[in-house]
Specification:
This protein is mostly helical. It has nine helices and five strands, in the order H-H-H-H-E-E-E-H-E-E-H-H-H-H.
């Protein structure tokens, strides 16, 4: 994935049997592919495939996707221009569409959650390397408690989000897709936490166009808004719990 992106990577994955993997082993293929997209900084329109398959459609096409703020977008399968914050992603505004089937929405949220976790780990890796290499007052800045706290809080957020993603597919009592909703929210919040803390650790160099951090931050902001932002999803979860009057069991402890 480090050598290709966009339509080229889309074609390469199809040639490697991506559609067959979605049919035969989605629980392995989706976390692997989407986490690697985040870690490498590559992108491909394969979210369409995950959601089309979950809704009973044929992969290889595209469908309208809900975005934060009540808007809708499409993720095109070419490398055309875009007006999104992340200029590498061929995402375009779309007219309002009918709500997506619950299965498609849940599958898409888990896939984007794994992508966010991968991006978060990439940001943490950049910050950790800088903390080991950057020397101030004769010591690596990674030896300073303030730096360690930011890195540790980032790691805890990432590990927590990954745990929710791993538990969501096996939620024993989840008729409304609450587990996938919460996993996507946790992943989005972890990415925002990683962006904030890692930017502080990297300091001025993290703002430069030559450094990779800004690419991961912009990617995380877009992915957090896709299929519902962390803020919107936590509010939606709270409203559902109040309406139902109870909290379903989402993990087998």
């Amino acid at each position: 994935m480090a050598a290709a992106s966009g339509a080229e990577l889309d074609a390469a994955l199809a040639g490697l049997g991506w559609f067959d993997m979605l049919d035969e082993m989605p629980d392995l293929a989706v976390p692997l592919v989407f986490r690697l997209l985040g870690e490498t900084g590559a992108h491909a329109p394969v979210l369409n495939d995950v959601m089309l398959r979950a809704s009973g459609g044929a992969p290889g096409g595209r469908l309208p996707l809900p975005f934060a703020g009540g808007s809708w977008v499409t993720w095109e399968r070419d490398d055309g221009p875009t007006t999104a914050l992340d200029g590498e992603l061929p995402i375009h505004r779309a007219p309002h569409a009918d709500p997506l089937p619950g299965a498609a929405l849940g599958a898409g949220r888990l896939a984007v959650g794994w992508w966010l976790v991968g991006s978060s780990r990439a940001m943490l890796s950049l910050a950790r390397r800088h903390a080991l290499d950057r020397v101030q007052f004769g010591r690596p800045i990674g030896s300073f408690q303030a730096i360690r706290h930011r890195l540790a809080e980032t790691l805890v957020a990432i590990e927590g989000a990954e745990a929710t993603l791993q538990a969501a597919p096996g939620a024993p009592d989840d008729p409304g897709g609450l587990a996938a909703l919460l996993a996507k929210a946790a992943s989005g919040q972890a990415a925002l936490t990683a962006a904030r803390h890692c930017q502080q650790v990297l300091g001025g160099i993290g703002f430069t166009a030559e450094h990779q951090l800004h690419r991961h931050i912009k990617r995380s902001l877009i992915l957090d808004g896709l299929l519902g932002s962390a803020r919107e999803l936590t509010r939606e979860a709270g409203a559902a719990l109040r309406a139902n009057g109870f909290a379903p069991r989402l993990a087998q402890l």
